[in-house]
Amino acid sequence: MPAATVVVRCRDEAPALERALASLRAQTVRPQVVVVDSGSVDGSLEVARRMADTVLTVPPEAFTYGGALNLGAAHADAAVHLALSAHCVAGPHWVERSLALLAEDGVGAASGRRLDPTGRPIVGRYLQTPDDARRDPFWGLSNHASSWRREVWEAEPFREDLAASEDLEWSWRVLARGWSVAFAPDVEVPMPHRRHARPDVLWRKIGREVAAVAELRDLPAPSLPAVIRHVLVPDPRTSTRPPLLRVVSPYRVLEVLAHDAALRRSARARGRAGAGPAAGSGVGPTSSGGATGAV
């Protein structure tokens, strides 16, 4: 039995997928690799069949992020599961260090972060609490590179009806069950594909992610002065880059504007529908102080 199983979700990512799978084959602890493909036509399936242990397919119209992870986890042989985006390249110790985090008592899931929810550098590892998730629902687990115990996933599978942010919603339920979610800088995996995406693609992606959280947690719309403040004053919790470089970063400005615009759209939609927060979020409603993506 392998020590870990990595689930990779993919669609039309052949060159990136090959780099991602090569990084998994170079791990100090070699995992079982399960690729879940949702309708690739660019050669991704051929790459997966050559480099992965198991290749699963779902029709594009049936794909959801949570559904693909549930399918991959159901075919995993290991007691520890990891998720890696097809866009990402993991460092050689990623699986080994993730296993070490999950070996700690009470830790049910893990992901990489350099800064804690207050903006302080994480030394060793940080254990998220339900209060952390209430204060900032956008700071948390990211399934571009995450890990979890099989027993936790069996008790709380990923929701398959969410368009995005299935990772955050799932982590709230895990925290509500009494498990800790651990974060450490040495299991961080970069997300260069976000910076390289076309502005319109990134705008829509951020919009989906923020809208999903806003609807689950009934988040208010930021005021216009708050939007201006978010643009001019970088959130210290989201990056270790110098503040001046972040102020003038077009990528950061786009992410902040997309984030706040999605909050405003969601609040308007709830006002028209008269709807409250969705059930099952685990840690209850909160308010948000602005964009908290890794910029």
UniProtKB/TrEMBL annotation:
Extract the ranges annotated as region (Disordered). Answer: 268-295
Could you tell me the keywords of this UniProt record? Transferase
Instruction: Domain (Glycosyltransferase 2-like): give its ranges.
Output: 5-116
Task: Enumerate the Gene Ontology biological process terms.
Answer: single-species biofilm formation
Q: Which residues form a coiled coil?
A: none
Give the originating organism. Cellulomonas marina
Q: Which Pfam families match?
A: Glycos_transf_2 (PF00535)
- The yes or no answer to whether the keyword Transit peptide is present is no
Q: Which named protein is this?
A: Glycosyltransferase, GT2 family
Q: Which GO terms describe its molecular function?
A: transferase activity
The domain of life for this entry's organism is: Bacteria
Q: Residue spans with biased composition (Gly residues)?
A: 273-283
InterPro entries linked to this entry: Glyco_trans_2-like, Glycosyltransf_2, Nucleotide-diphossugar_trans
